Automatic annotation (TrEMBL):
Keyword set includes Transferase: yes
Organism: Streptomyces africanus
GO terms, molecular function: transferase activity
Family named by the database record: Belongs to the 3-oxoacid CoA-transferase subunit B family.
Listed name of the protein: Acyl CoA:acetate/3-ketoacid CoA transferase beta subunit
Keywords: Transferase
Lineage start: Bacteria, Bacillati, Actinomycetota, Actinomycetes, Kitasatosporales
A family per Pfam: CoA_trans
Keyword Transferase assigned: yes
Amino acid sequence: MTGVSRAEYCVIACAEAWRGAGEVLASPMGLVPSVGARLARLTFAPDLLLTDGEALLVRPDGTTEGWLPYRQHLALVTGGRRHVMMGASQIDRFGNQNISCIGDWERPRRQLLGVRGAPVNTLNHPTSYWIPRHSRRVFVDRVDMVCGVGYDHAAGAPHHRIPRVVSDLGVFDFATPDRSMRLASLHPGVTVEQVSQATGFELAVPDEVPPTREPTAEELRLIREVVDPAGTRTREVAA
């Protein structure tokens, strides 16, 4: 399909995180994941619950659909019925995520957001990640501090799952015997070599890496005319 931007492929890749999720609370963090969650709700995930981030359930256009009291929100969070897509300042081969600091936590070179709710999120419900700028500074061999819990630290937590990591270069999952990161698809125009050079550890790479799926004509219309007519997606991925 011609005329599809890299940002729109990223929207599709993020939307796919919620395919088949059923009636769960979607919590996208970032412009591209937010467009993706709303697109998923309008197309293949009609039971998805969207929130304004405070106390309301909303429709894809932002109008009120219901009330979500904090007690019920916590019940969804701790019972595996939420799927958040977070960002990461660092992420490693097993899906450990860092948003707290760079360097030794006792004397960090740079202070970031802090741990926040990352441990509770990752141990209690599915958590995916969105990385708008894929680089060795983000995809590191070992995170400086574990905030979001990866597969090597989850200790069999019943709701722990990392469905996918989406970057501006491709899509990644953990469908390997040791649950290390695997290259699942490449966005059009991106090569395996580009991804490998921008990653600070050795990725699992299948013999044939499929392309990230094309958006349908209807999905493109919804992205451009209904969900994101202002083009906010290009603030995170310009290409």
